Amino acid sequence: IANGEELGALCITEPFAGSDAANVFTSAIKDGDEWILNGKKRFITGAGVSDRYFIYAKTSDDPAIRKQYGHITSFMVEKGRPGFSLEKINPLIGFDNVPNGYIDFDHVRIPDINRIGAVGNGWNVMMAGLNFERLIGAAVFSGLFEDVINLLFHFTKRRVQFRRTTNQFPGIQNEIAEIISLAKGSVMHKAPNSSPFAILGSQDRF
């Protein structure tokens, strides 16, 4: 994946676990040197075309363990394993080249070597990845925001108030400058100076 030879997909969202990522129903039961996975994942970016799927499954129903977010374990599942299936692909607006779909796991067996991190440490693995992903997302939308700024520039050049175009008013100039500074500064400051991106990643999401 790091060399670009294969694609990976992150599988978190479920039919009843979206924003509440800790409330996973997909289960992983240890059977000797293997794990048996059962469950459903939804709205998975890269579904079908990815070679490896990184999923989060519950490995404990103990209320005390769940309270400490220790009931989740992370696994890697290769496409094509028996019981692994693609249920459907969702049409997306503006992302025709990025498939998004539903994936089902029906008694999928994987070796213990496919486990990522310690048993019960899946929540920390998930957050480490998501916090960095939020920063990447902020960078993407910061780039898209340049088009918004260009539209704003053109609008203020056309709109006339008090016999002047609005781009000549210091108050408007300051607001535009602040918007640009916040969008760019959010990424430029946090990317090199923050790890593991926990608080700053959430700020970028906001």
From TrEMBL:
It holds the Pfam family Acyl-CoA_dh_M. This is Acyl-CoA oxidase/dehydrogenase middle domain-containing protein. Belongs to the acyl-CoA dehydrogenase family. Residues 120-179 form the Acyl-CoA dehydrogenase/oxidase C-terminal domain. GO terms for molecular function: acyl-CoA dehydrogenase activity. Signal peptide: none annotated. It comes from marine sediment metagenome. Keywords: FAD, Flavoprotein. InterPro entries: Acyl-CoA_Oxase/DH_mid-dom, Acyl-CoA_Oxase/DH_mid-dom_sf, AcylCo_DH-like_C, AcylCo_DH/oxidase_C, AcylCoA_DH/oxidase_NM_dom_sf.
